[in-house]
Amino acid sequence: MKRIFYSVLAVMMLCCAACTRSEEEGVLPEGGKSGQKVFVRIENVQVPKVRMIEDEKNDKTESAVEFQSGYLFFLTPKGQVRTHYSIVSNEEDVDDEGHKLSLKQIQEGHTFTGISGDVSKVYIVGNVTSDELNDQDIHSGDLPFISDIHLKKISLGNQHADNMNHVALAGIEGLTDGGAGMKEATVTLSPLCARLEIGKITTDQTILDYKLDGVYVAGFYEKMPLNQQCVESDWVSPDYATSDVEAELKTFYTRYGWMADCIEFSKVQEQTEDGHNVYSFYPEATQSKKWAYPFFAIEEPAEGVEPYKGHLGVHLLLKLSGMTVKLYDETTNSWEEKKLEGVRYINLNRFVRSHSAHADAVNFYNGHIYKIDEIKFGTTNLSDKIMPTDVSVKVTVSVAPWKIDNIYPAL
């Protein structure tokens, strides 16, 4: 499995070590002077060059996230911020006195001077907006520790643009001895959101005809703190208990239009392995595009560490109309054809790694792309309501400059 690797090489020349302030008192240590030099280089990053029907992402370079701007923090063992630098994409914004460096400088390598001797970690955050984290936040002194920075929230609405090519990124790594009086660190920047891709929507033989009117992400977190531990107050969804579903969907997706698609999709008649003809829908006629949506998940834990348990997952909703179905008549012991008036919904809210009835629900991790090859449903999955407990979707997993998890629903 691959990650997006942004290598930060920090070469620390050990001379008269000093601190800008101590951990507890916030003052310069007695007799201290700033004398360390730190060489930092970011490697293997793409530089900058709404609807969510997009090209499929893969594990190739073209799917890498672009690093446009961000912040580099030097941290003590207790997570205190000793100093920070802005990384900007515009060369005209470079200001050495103001601690503003260009992405080009960091890519080619930049030597930092006057770094405190107790610095032991490098933390980088990229592609955050000024509303989420900015120079004033940092210079105000209100964010003295990484734990304070981690409470700043990023918005899902800032993650979907340009096929998710510049989502928020973050990574932290400790400095290690590099020999010859040097220290170094390699930092892996991972996307701070996940991505859901859906290839096609199809049916079993009980559905004779239908129209796909909409694909919706019908429950998600609109914000996430940088510590990747979402809270319930940031969860949004349509009102599942509404008596007027049409009006509720219209109102909700007026605000969150980038989490839904309600256009004319490509309808294709296909033959199943057992010889039955069914209708399938694709985002576009080429069948190469995907329905693609960002969502906030949780941080992938280190091996042996339990993942964060407070996450509500993600909910999907399909809207269908013009349905003709086959229903079994137990009186005549035969199948009969019937037209269904109005609209029906498919509610998808649970994902697992296999089709086993006993499979545990999948933990969704940021930095992963979850691919649903197809959503296949039948008459038993239809509902005239939107609710989070109708049916389950089963998911299997595979990986990119993101990590890719192949998923498909088990209805």
UniProtKB/TrEMBL annotation:
It comes from Bacteroides muris. This is Major fimbrial subunit protein N-terminal domain-containing protein. The keyword Signal applies. Keywords: Signal. It comes from the Bacteria. Residues 1-17 form the signal peptide.
